[in-house]
Amino acid sequence: MWLKSANSNIIAYSYNLEHKHDHNFNTVNNYDFLQNCYYIFATTEYERSILRKRFVLSSMRQNYPKILFAGFTRFDLYCNKKESSLPRKNKPFTILYTPRWTSYKKIKSQGSSFLLYIDNFIDYARQNSDIQIIIRLHPLMIHHYIAENIVSPDYFEKLENTFRQLGNIRFDTSKDYFDSLEKADAFISDYTSLLVEFFISRKPVIYLGNVSLFNKNTKKMCQAFYKANSWNEINNFIEQLKNGCDLFYEKRNRLFPKIIKSYGKASENIRNILKNNFYEKGERL
User: Fold this and answer.
1) What is the mean pLDDT of the chain?
2) pLDDT tens track for 29-84
3) C-alpha angle 114/119/124, rounded to 5°?
4) Cis peptide leading into residue 87 (ω within 30°)
5) How far apart are the two ends of the chain, measured CA to CA in Å?
6) Phi/psi of residue 142, each to 5°?
7) Whose CA is closest to 101, among 91, 88, 119, 114?
8) HSE toward the beta carbon, residue 70, CA cutoff 13 A
9) What is the three-class DSSP state of 11?
């Protein structure tokens, strides 16, 4: 009997923002799972170096996984997109708000600002009919908030009714966030791996979380974010950007090539590595 086997390889869907001591980094990069992979395609050079050190130090085998950095595949979707300037003519100023799914009580430890600011967003939409607000919730958020009795079972339904009455604020319930990201002129966000996708769009980001758990590259990226700790600060930044005053525009463009590597080539790089490995094995057989 001939036994056939195939290599298991992992291509991360989520960009690594954290440093090596953060819980999220250790959860995503689970050693027990990763040690059985053949190729691990890291999302950053930093992640690659940390994982290589961990496997070299902890592995009892010589054939631990091959850990490579070939770029981040999600970036390939943006490589042909043109930069946009503020404000865009003949279009309403559009905000994409992405709150975290956890409780707002933990906002300073990468929690959610949703319950803290949702009424402010509604009031802002009511007072500014010339803008559009898109709210993209985490897929786990509604279930989590209701299951934990953080809100009533009909809370989100009531919000949607309010949104329909106003007409210029809505939840984005599509399967992919790419369309909303494209429409947005500015992003307002808690901690999320989407921060890097906001960054490569070269559009302004108003960041509501803290940066203490970020790795070195992510902290550099955050230098081009507007950081807000209250609704007044959020409101001021929105008004500033809506009027075409983007103080960090040049800084974002300077930082971009220093932080984002293998931009637009990740899928091609990974495909070539896997294809070459397949044919090399075939020749040996």
Assistant:
1) 84
2) 666 777 778 888 988 888 888 888 877 766 545 566 788 888 888 888 777 665 55
3) 115
4) yes
5) 16
6) -60, -50
7) 114
8) 22
9) strand
Spatial distance between the Cα atoms of 263 and 150, rounded to a whole number of angstroms: 41
Q: Give every CB contact of residue 104 below 8 A, 6+ residues apart in sequence.
A: 111, 112, 113, 114, 115, 116
Residue 151 has pLDDT above 60, yes or no: yes
- Give the CB-side neighbour count of residue 57, counting CA atoms within 13 A: 7
Of 266, 258, 205, which Cα lies nearest the Cα of 74?
266
Structure tokens at 245: 């005053």
- What is the C-alpha separation between 196 and 218, in angstroms, rounded? 8
The domain spans of the chain are 9-76+263-284, 93-259
- pLDDT tens-place string over residues 169-192: 999 999 888 889 999 999 999 988
d(CA 153, CA 35): 42
Instruction: Supply the pLDDT for residue 20.
Output: 55
Q: What is the pLDDT of residues 109-128, one digit of tens each?
A: 568 999 999 999 999 999 99
Nearest CA-CA partner of 103 in 140, 136, 153: 140
Distance of CA 121 to the CA centre of its chain: 21
Pick the more confident residue, 89 or 151. Answer: 151
What HEC string does 202-252 produce?
A: CCCEEECCCCCCECHHHHHHHCCCEECCCHHHHHHHHHHHHCCCCCCHHHH
pLDDT per residue as tens digits for the range 68-80: 888 888 888 777 6
| Contact between 195 and 205 (Cβ < 8 Å) | yes
Place of tokens 């960041």: 207
List the CATH code of the domain at 93-259. Answer: 3.40.50.2000
- Spatial contact of 121 and 132, defined as CB atoms under 8 Å apart: no
The pLDDT value given to residue 284: 42
